[in-house]
Design brief:
Blueprint lengths: L3 E2 L4 E3 L19 H10 L5 H4 L13 H15 L2 E3 L5 E10 L2 E16 L8 E2 L6 H14 L1 E2 L3 E5 L4 H8 L7 E4 L5 E7 L2 H11 L4 E5 L1 H18 L17 E8 L6 E3 L2 E4 L7 H8 L3 E6 L5 H12 L5 E4 L4 E7 L1 H6 L5 H4 L2 H13 L4 H5 L4 E4 L2 H9 L5 E5 L4 H9 L10 E3 L9 E2 L2
Parallel strand pairs: 6-11, 8-12
Antiparallel strand pairs: 1-5, 2-3, 4-5, 4-10, 5-12, 7-21, 8-11, 9-10, 13-20, 14-18, 14-19, 15-17, 16-17, 16-19
Helix pairs in contact: 3-4, 4-7, 5-6
Length: 442
């Protein structure tokens, strides 16, 4: 069962720092120029904790993690971050336009609460992507140093709207937080402290299965930290600190979104292959014919045209678009050799364009190894189709593969079956802002 709790979130005091100058995108979405911008925005911007600058003289006593912990203690001491007066859950709304379509309008609604950290074997929390050791080690060092969760984990649950209706009852007044991010997304948060309403939400969530949408590395970091703390406490199971208090490391801060929310948007993540020692378009074309029906299209296709073409072709099955500097190909209708390569995968995974792309094209045709793909030696991931096309056409890459996004139903089915997709298979948009609420373990 899903065990959720209200909590007294640490929040920025707007009298000391405007929230818009303090919150950030998730740490793994912060590129160097964005990090610089956040540093310049405010001396209290959260980037100084979740993704601080590394320095040449870093050592075990003075490093990015010790500085983050010192900064966190300083802000708490000054009251820049202060706890809410009552245990609460927090309604969370994001209003946004789809990238590339400024006239569109979506709203995604959910709520923030603590969720119990569960082993996957408990069949409460389900993943859909693999994780890597290096990012988890980094986040674990930060968690050990600060003993706080600064970023929300994005979880999906499913019902017919009963929980959304309860949360809506507590979010009818002026928002507690109202901020717009650099992508034009409006983020609004309402504190809900009514014990009866909170308990009703808790009870409705008890029978829910949870799927990680975003935050696999941070969730598994919370698992590892929980296990460390259990070892230190001399117990192998969840044990309360006292009869009326649950161990804080048994929980992590989560945002819960209904899978049926009409504002739940998944974007594709395109693949760009670069720095190949040898690459022949003719050889690629010939080799691809063994796996797919191949149609050459206008090499000057733009991002909008490519998206429309993929959307149309994808309605009847597999659709992959391969673009080189001077040529472009639409791949569809997998042939028997493709089926043979995919035979070790479940029918659910065989239907995923991203799995076919990795196994048949990246590994089968281009001969990239699984290890090199994991290490991104010749591969980069790009959200925007126009950026992927630009990298190819400016000579920075050998070939770009554009794909359609996965569907929420596919993510759910893969997760509940205990299977995983390749890295960067899903891009839930928009991201949850970091720093709206903070969970202090102490």
């Amino acid at each position: 069962m899903a065990d959720i709790l209200p909590f007294r979130a640490l929040r920025y005091d707007p009298r000391q720092v405007p929230v818009t100058q303090a919150v950030t995108q998730p740490y793994d979405k912060i590129y160097p120029a964005m990090q610089d911008r956040y540093y310049s925005a405010s001396p209290y911007n959260l980037v100084r904790i979740i993704l601080g600058r590394r320095e040449a003289q870093d050592n075990p006593e003075n490093n990015v993690y010790t500085r983050a912990a010192a900064t966190y203690r300083d802000w708490r001491g000054k009251g820049v971050l202060s706890p809410d007066s009552a245990p609460s859950i927090y309604a969370y709304s994001q209003t946004f336009a789809a990238p590339g379509d400024p006239t569109s309008r979506f709203e995604r609604r959910g709520f923030i609460a603590l969720g119990r950290v569960e082993d996957y074997s408990a069949k409460v929390v389900y993943r859909h992507e693999q994780t890597l050791a290096k990012p988890k080690a980094d986040r674990l060092d930060l968690l050990r140093a600060t003993r706080a969760h600064f970023e929300q984990l994005f979880f999906l649950y499913e019902d017919a709207g009963e929980i959304d209706a309860l949360v809506a009852r507590g979010s009818q007044n002026t928002p507690t937080i109202d901020v717009q991010d650099e992508y034009g997304v409006a983020h609004r948060v309402w504190q809900i402290s009514d014990p009866a309403l909170v308990e009703s939400v808790r009870q409705q969530m008890r029978d829910k299965k949870l799927v990680i949408a975003d935050g696999h590395h941070r969730y598994e970091t919370a698992l590892n930290y929980r296990n460390e703390q259990r070892t230190s406490a001399g117990t192998a199971t969840a044990t309360p600190v006292s009869p009326n208090e649950k161990a804080p490391y048994e929980y992590v801060m989560m945002t819960f979104i209904n899978m049926n929310d009409p504002g739940l948007l998944i974007l594709p993540t395109h693949r760009v292959v670069h720095s190949l020692t040898s690459f022949s378009v003719d050889d690629f074309q010939n080799d691809c014919r063994a796996f797919y029906e191949l149609e050459e299209i206008d090499s000057a296709v733009d991002a909008a045209g490519a998206t429309a073409l993929l959307n149309k072709a994808g309605k009847s099955g597999t659709a992959l678009l391969a673009v080189t500097p001077n040529r472009a190909f639409l791949l569809s209708k997998p042939k028997p050799p493709a089926a043979k390569i995919l035979s070790s995968f479940s029918a659910r995974q065989q239907e995923l364009d991203v799995v076919q792309l990795h196994k048949c094209l990246l590994e089968g045709v281009l001969k990239l190894s699984e290890e090199s793909i994991r290490n991104q030696e010749n591969l980069s991931y790009v959200r925007e189709a126009d950026e992927a096309l630009a990298q190819v056409r400016t000579g920075k890459a050998n070939i770009a593969f554009l794909i359609n996004p996965c569907r929420v139903q596919q993510v759910r089915d893969i997760a509940f079956a205990g299977e995983v997709m390749p890295q960067k298979s899903t891009d839930f948009y928009p991201k949850l802002l970091s720093g709206l609420t903070i969970y202090a373990l102490d």
